[in-house]
Amino acid sequence: MLSTGLWLLCVCQRGVAQSAAVTFQSAETKTALLELYTSEGCSSCPPAETRLSRLKVDPALWRDVVPVAFHVDYWDYLGWHDPWSAKVFSERQRSLAESWNAPSVYTPGFVLNGKEWRDWSGFRTLPPLRKEKAGVLKVSSTNSPCWQVSFVPAAGLQQRYEVFAALLGSGLSSDVKAGENKGRKLTHDFVALSFEKKTLSLVDNHLQGEFVLSPKGKTKDDRLALAVWVTRAGRLEPLQATGGWLEKSKDR
pTM for the whole thing? Predict the structure, then answer.
């Protein structure tokens, strides 16, 4: 066991073991977290989603950047309920906006490492990122909904931390029948299908907690991925992130 660091212990009952362990691990330098706040009810969002989808073939994916598309629910009043929208995603965006003193939220809205990124359309790739030492974040599982997570901060364990995780779906699509995108077939990648946050407690000189993440509803043949990041308790700016594609299970 690591002498210092963050350990997230997942306890599951009656889980179905995977054929092999799955592990994702960051480098010691910081991996960026790129969030997109979007909605099927917003006619300005498809270009931003296309921009995010380009990361599927970008060598920087998972190594340098972890993407997450959060579908907000505040456009649903126009008559089209975005099937991937959730109130918690809208609340997260509002909390981020408050952190940089913005009077309101909007879509599409990119957030890079906890900061607003407005000029995303002018970049074919991500803007230059500071490759500062952040520590190593590792997630692993032998039971698909349950994950063990460890984080060893570059500066050593100094305070409480929180871990966030999102199960992502790619290759999603829907035929929009109302709202600003009425009549369009929209496709999406890196969509947050489920989302969890855990506050970790210090026990015997390390932090422990439980983490279980399962898809809500059917995922059919959509490609799944996992995104995980760690922050200081009560903060939204990520310290480190990691993630990767998940293999399809035989029962999906």
Answer: 0.89
